[in-house]
Amino acid sequence: MKRALLSTALVVASFPSLGNAVELLHWWTSNGEREALAELAIALKQQGIVLKSSPVHGGGGDTAMTVLQARAIAGNPPEMALIEGPGIQSWATLGFVSDLHSVAIEQNWDERLPDIATNINTYKSHFVAAPVNIHRVNWLWANRAVFDEHNLTPPANWDEFFAVAQVFKSQGIPALAIGNEPWQLAILFEVLTLGLYGSDYYRDLLIEFDDALVMNNKTVELFKTFRRLKPYMTDPSVSASWDNATLNMVKGKAAMQLQGDWVKGELSYMSLKPKQDYYCLPAPGTANSFIYNVDSFVLFRLRTEASENMANQLANTLVSSDFQSRFNQKKGSIPILKDVDMTPFDICAKASKQAFVHAEVNNTLLPSMSDSMAVAPQLQEAMLELINHYFNDDTFTEEEAISQLMKIAASVHFNR
Ligand code: BGC
C-alpha cells in the first residue's frame, strides 16, 4: 500500500511538465454514456487533470475506430482512446500504446481482475490497456406498463417471444425496438444464436467458425428465424440509433429491446426503476450464459518519461474501486475489478454480477462477436455486412448467406 502511495506521489510530481489536459477519443454520446463519462472527468479533475472529450458518433464504436486509425497514421493520436477486444493487441503489436506493466504489478491487477480482462488487455504478458467494466450483451429490456396493459409476461425463450410478439402485433405494437444498423442487427443475431442453440453452438459458430456447423441445418434455421423477427420490429427501414430505440421502448412505441446494459444507463438517466418501470431479464433462452463486452482504455505512447508517468496515473484511476463503482452505476455495466462492493448497485447490476460468476464457473462466458470482443476487426466487419445484407435484402437466400459464411470461415482458418 505504502509503495503504491509513494509511486502515485512520484507520478503526480512528474506529471505537470506535460500539461494537464488529456484528450479521450470515444463513442459515448448517449445521455447515460455522457453521465458515466462525467464521472471520469471528475475522478481525473481530483488529480489536476482535465479530460478533453473527442466523441465520434456511432454505437458499437466502428466509426470511432476508423477515426482513431486515421489519426494514428497521421501521427496525431489522442492521448487516450476507448477500445475493445482483439483490437487492443493489434495496437500493441504496432507499438503505439503505453506499457502499463509497472502499475499493473503494483496494483495487483492479475489477482484483482478476472481472466478475461487479463487475456484481452495484455500483450506479451504485459498490460497495455486499462479495463473499466463488464457489459452483459444478452439482456432483454421490457416496458412494464405495456406488458401489464396487455396482461402479458416477458418471454423466457424464443417460442414465447414469437407468441408474445404476435399478440402485440395484433394490437398494433411492435414487440422489438431496434434501429436498422449493422451493429444493432448483429447483436440481435448473436443473442438469437445463443438463445436458440446454446453456448457451445455460439462458440463453435461465431468464434471458431466450425465448417461442419456452418453447413448444418441448424444454421439454416437460425437465418430463417432471424428473418422471422422482421415483422415484429419498429419500422425496419429506419436506421435509428440504439438509444433512440430505447426511447421508443420507454414511450411504449415498442414493448422490448434486446441490447447490452448500456441501455440501463439510459433508463437510469431517465430516473426509471427496474421492476417498477421496466424489467431487466436475460435475453430469451440465455439465462445460463453471459455474452460479455469489456470497455478498455489504451494510452498512446508519447515517448517522454513524463507521458509514461501520466499513463500510469491515468491507468491507476481507471482501475480503481472508487472510480469503477461510481462510473458503472451510471454506465449500466458492472465493475471489472472483483473487489468492488456491489451494495449500492441496482438489482439488474447485481443479477449481472451473479450471472457473470455463474458463467465463469460453468464455461458459458462468451465474448461478443458483434461488439468486437471475439474476432479480429476485419472478420467482425465481414460478419456485420453479411447479417445486414441478409436482413435487408429478402431476395438473398439462406443458402447464399451460408456460402458467404463459408468464405468468412475459410479466411478465419487461413489467418489462425
Ligand atoms: C460499448 C459500450 C457502449 C455501446 C453503445 C459498446 O460497444 O462497449 O460502452 O455504451 O457500445 O455505444
TrEMBL record:
It is found in: Periplasm. GO terms for cellular component: periplasmic space. It comes from the Bacteria. Belongs to the bacterial solute-binding protein 1 family. PANTHER family: ARABINOSE-BINDING PROTEIN-RELATED, BINDING PROTEIN COMPONENT OF ABC SUGAR TRANSPORTER-RELATED. Part of a binding-protein-dependent transport system for a sugar. This is Probable sugar-binding periplasmic protein. It comes from Veronia nyctiphanis.
